[in-house]
Write a structure and sequence with these properties.
Elements (H helix, E strand, L loop, with lengths): L1 H8 L7 E4 L5 E6 L5 H5 L23 E7 L6 E8 L3 E9 L4 E9 L2 E8 L6 E9 L2 E10 L2
Antiparallel strand pairs: 1-2, 3-4, 4-7, 5-6, 5-8, 8-9
């Protein structure tokens, strides 16, 4: 943790990156600013075998339920939802128009595993909509649909 690094290695500048050697000695106490990967790599000892490579990183929370398929696309008004759920509970599907206004909502039974539900959206006008899936009052997924007759 931060306090342990402060106490053990005397880091006193923030924000900072530091480089601690395998033998737990401080090699470089303040690597800042870091404008690119090369700035960081240059802080390593000469003769190192560092081969920097860029990679994409993201945080993706595992939802308790998600759409596996929404069809047909485009729809004439009736859509089939295939939903995978990690738990049993109440599924709520909210329908939003292109302006972000909620135009309808449906409460469905969700069992653990694969679920198939059919929604009749034929009362909606042609256009694009977003289906927002909630499980036990928690948002878990969203899909865009098109209604065209």
């Amino acid at each position: 943790g931060c306090a342990a690094v402060d106490d053990d290695f005397g880091v006193s500048a923030y924000p900072t990156y530091c480089l601690i050697a395998p033998d737990n000695t401080m090699y470089n106490q303040d690597i800042w600013p870091i404008s690119n990967m090369n700035t960081y790599v240059q802080a390593f000892p000469s003769g190192n075998v560092i081969n920097p490579a860029s990679c994409a990183v993201s945080i993706n929370e595992q939802g308790v339920a998600s759409f596996t398929e929404v069809f047909p696309q485009p729809s004439t008004g009736v859509v089939t939802l295939n939903v995978d759920s990690r738990v049993s509970g109440t599924l709520t599907v909210e329908v939003f128009d292109i302006l972000g206004q909620r135009v309808s909502a449906y409460s469905l039974n969700g069992n653990s595993g694969a679920n198939t539900h059919t929604l009749d959206l034929s009362d909606l006008t042609d256009g694009q909509y977003v289906l927002k899936l909630n499980m036990n009052d928690r948002a878990t997924d969203a899909r865009r649909i098109v209604i065209a007759r």
